[in-house]
Amino acid sequence: MAWIYLLIAGLLEMGWAIGLKYTQGFTKLVPSIATVSCMVVSFVFLSIALRTLPVGTAYAVWTGIGAAGTALLGVILLGESAEFRRFFCIGLIIAGVLGLRLLSSH
């Protein structure tokens, strides 16, 4: 279950990272509330996952999911660069996350 909690935490991290763009410096009420809510719930799920998983592994996976997912959403939602080199680097992050999962004893 810890890995499921960690996945949820990572997905919520993507939500708040992208949400920051839409808050316009926390001047927009609804996006700001949604962003802060995603932040809090993401941290809650991360802390639950940390009951079982090593902190280094969990934190690396959480940030990896957030970083790779946010970069992909930036391309899809915000029109950011979609060049091959960018996707290659995102793939390296995903490979690292998968590697940590496969090598974990939990």
UniProtKB/TrEMBL annotation:
Has UniProt tagged this entry with the keyword Iron-sulfur?
no
Q: Transmembrane stretches, by residue range?
A: 29-50, 57-78, 84-103
Is the keyword rRNA processing in the record? no
Q: Spell out the subcellular localization from the entry.
A: Cell membrane
- Cite the entry's keywords alphabetically: Cell membrane, Membrane, Transmembrane, Transmembrane helix, Transport
Recorded topology in the membrane: Multi-pass membrane protein
Family note = Belongs to the drug/metabolite transporter (DMT) superfamily. Small multidrug resistance (SMR) (TC 2.A.7.1) family.
Task: Name it.
Answer: Quaternary ammonium compound efflux SMR transporter SugE
In the UniProt record, the gene name given for this protein reads sugE
